[in-house]
Amino acid sequence: MPPPTAERFTVRAVLDRLLAEPPPPADPTEVAAVLAWFTEEAEARVARCPPEALPLRLPKARIESLLACERMTVAKLGALPLSEALVRGRCTDLLVAQHALTGLTADAEDDLRSALSARADHDVLAWIDEADDDGRDRLWRHAGLVREALRTGWGPIDSAWWARPQESVRVPVADGALVLSCTFDLALGGPGTGRPWVLVEVKAGTARDGNRSDLLWYSLVAALRHRRPPDLVVAWSAADDGLVPVPITAGSLEAAGRRALAALDRLVELAAGREPEARPNPRCRWCPDIDRCPPGLASLDAPRTVSDRTYLDDEQDWVADDEAGW
């Protein structure tokens, strides 16, 4: 007798299961208490910031950067040049968006060029055209893998899910002195649809446990904006068609809040003039300040652990123009 086959954990299977067995909502009283606590704590911290440094901005990538290395955070305050990692991430997001809205054709390169032209992403198109043959081959090869993973692991998305790609959310705190932000790569369902509310974070690389922190931040910002959290947040990784789902409770919102407050403490101190500390970490190799940072340079020669290797270059985030500066 052959061994039983486990069902593969896919986006399609998760959505079908949510429809068949909608998850119980997080306790609204507990959620309201967490949101009030976080808002009060954030306002108290921002009150210590010099007025000339306001408003402070706290997007997802800055939280991770502040907790990893303050010097890297300061180095990334300005606009960053395009890289293969950033272009690959943007292209992956666009393929997911087109799959969710209209479906993809058999030609992933043509789909991407059309989408980039429609979005007036001329800088990305120029980067692609100026890349060497190997760079373009890697990009189109990855796009083909993404297309196949979307076909097999996602399948067509019912229009009743009301797919919303690249949904940006900004939440002002303390009368706008602090702006919390994130971009949901794909939002599905939610209020007005009669379906569970699902947020999908798209990763060009492979699944890793660190994605959970990003997902919890999404849930907190969404809850602050809509006064209720999503029913489920998931990270989908294109390179391995992996899925990391995270159900949302008041406790997970509190965990996201505590992590954000720890990052905000550092941001306020840096904005007030404290010198940033350098902390070598797996992302040193992409830091704009790496050539002037002895601890970071030294870390590049250290043996890489399995955990380090999960921080692939395709995990870099696209930074919106309004997220530059403090």
CATH topology-level fold name of the largest domain:
Lambda Exonuclease, Chain A
| Count of structural domains | 2
Known CATH architecture of the largest domain: Alpha-Beta Complex
Helix content: 40-55%
Model description:
The protein is an alpha/beta fold. It has helices at residues 11-20, 28-46, 60-68, 70-75, 84-101, 108-118, 122-130, 133-154, 211-226, 250-271, 294-300, 306-309, and strands spanning 56-59, 164-173, 178-190, 195-203, 232-237, 242-247. It folds into two domains: 17-80 and 160-316, Lambda Exonuclease, Chain A (Alpha-Beta Complex); 84-159, no CATH class. The protein contains twelve helices and six strands. Strands 1, 2, 3, 4, 5 and 6 form a six-stranded mixed beta sheet that branches. A hairpin with a 4-residue loop joins strand 2 and strand 3. The N and C termini lie far apart (62 Å). Residues 1-6 and 306-315 have low confidence and may be disordered.
Task: Summarize the SSE layout with pairings.
Elements: H1 11-20, H2 28-46, E1 56-59, H3 60-68, H4 70-75, H5 84-101, H6 108-118, H7 122-130, H8 133-154, E2 164-173, E3 178-190, E4 195-203, H9 211-226, E5 232-237, E6 242-247, H10 250-271, H11 294-300, H12 306-309
Parallel strand pairs: 1-3, 4-5
Antiparallel strand pairs: 2-3, 3-4, 5-6
Helix pairs in contact: 2-10, 3-10, 5-6, 5-8, 9-10
